[in-house]
């Protein structure tokens, strides 16, 4: 990996976490086209945002997220040199000055595109989402990340907000076109909210669990650089227990979704139920076993990567929802 990072382009992709950015964009497209479009169409309502408008909205989200990853690495060089010396990009393949320039550029363009989207939607106050995200990512990197729970909660909230942004803009624009839209289409709006909220809740809880697992993985470097993360403050066993219960809660919520699906369709083994059991509940059970046995950073890294894959599978449920 370290040899690949000698290539500046590959180093840049590593710096902005290209795989995470793709997942962010994919999340917003799937929520809009697989979840909201299906629910609205079932109620005789067309999507309010045109494709170009939505593409700009997604680009704004991705650029702000990329800026956050860059500034996080910028302030975390010393810690990363202890935890992941072979994958450090800043000061090796990319100079610190260029990292700051990229961060500022991406932040400004991302926020300005967010303001443009808010103006187009007719609700300038929606721009606060973009300003707040950029601000929180800065303070996360400079302060929150090494504090007990605060950094974990900030990242988890931002992960959940990625899912909610398409809903907020879509309903906002439809409401602007028809001031009585929410009253006339209460069932459709509530249905959209309910399903999007389930995805957001899944994103929040799994992100919280993954952040704690990553903190256990990075215990050595965080402690050496003055961090006060959960594993440092409460210890590894308590952190394991916390992430364990978060994942158990996730499984309970997934089983509740299966139960609701059964109540609605009266089909025990529906495609949705089978997908949740096989692609989400079963891997989560495997993850729980891995987590309990993990002692070394490498084991925590495997657990973190598995959880990231499970989060991707959770997003994939949107396609099952659309086609079922």
Fold topology:
Elements: H1 8-15, H2 18-42, H3 51-75, H4 77-83, H5 96-121, H6 127-142, H7 150-177, H8 181-184, H9 186-217, H10 219-224, H11 230-233, H12 236-265, H13 271-293, H14 297-323
Count of spatially separate domains? 1
How do the helices and strands follow one another from N- to C-terminus? HHHHHHHHHHHHHH
Unreliable segments (pLDDT under 50, ≥5 consecutive)?
Answer: none
pLDDT averaged over residues: 91
- Strand content range: under 5%
**Percent range of helical residues:** over 70%
Number of helices: 14
> What is the global morphology?
globular
Number of strands: 0
Reported for the largest beta sheet, the result is: none
Gap between N and C termini: 41 Å
Helix/strand-derived category reads: mainly alpha
Question: From the alpha-carbon coordinates, what is the Rg to the nearest angstrom?
Answer: 21 Å
Give your account of this protein's structure:
The chain has 324 residues and is mainly α. The protein is 81% helix and 0% strand. It contains 14 helices and no strands. It has helices at 8-15, 18-42, 51-75, 77-83, 96-121, 127-142, 150-177, 181-184, 186-217, 219-224, 230-233, 236-265, 271-293, 297-323. The radius of gyration is 21 Å and the shape is globular. The model has no long low-confidence stretch (mean pLDDT 91).
Task: Write out key terms for the chains shown.
324 residues; mainly alpha; 81% helix
